[in-house]
Design goal:
Helices cover 30% and strands 36% of the residues. By secondary structure, the chain is of the alpha+beta class.
């Protein structure tokens, strides 16, 4: 029995979309690697952690050992617009909402965040 032509069209669309996403990610990685590391004075506006999308399950509750994604919103102290960066777990847990400090980025990639030291009076 021959599979319907619609099946092949759907497979081709999936392959094209996956290839476009892969090329976009590779291009972004190349741009980030070629960019200089910049330092920005910022305030941590918000932090968020959530389960990584799991293609094998449609459950909404967090399962122990499940892979988590972390991100933080930063507000540049020079007045530019807020922006979001993905973080690893250790960086995420070391920063607190509302803290000001120096953010280092390379292109659109998070490098580090150093909280401002409060001077003793």
């Amino acid at each position: 029995m021959k599979p319907p032509i619609l099946f092949f069209i759907v497979l081709a669309c999936i392959a094209i979309l996956a290839t476009r996403q892969f090329i976009k990610q590779r291009r972004e990685a190349v741009i980030n690697n070629a960019s200089p590391v910049r330092s920005l004075p910022v305030e941590v506006k918000n932090k968020q952690e959530f389960p990584s999308p799991n293609r094998h399950s449609r459950q909404r509750e967090v399962i122990a050992g499940e892979t988590m994604r972390y991100e933080a919103w930063f507000h540049p102290l020079n007045g530019a617009g807020d922006f979001k960066l993905p973080l690893c777990a250790s960086d995420y847990h070391q920063m607190d909402k509302g803290v000001k400090g120096e953010l280092k980025v390379q292109g659109s990639r998070f490098v580090s965040f150093t909280p401002q030291l409060h001077s003793a009076r």
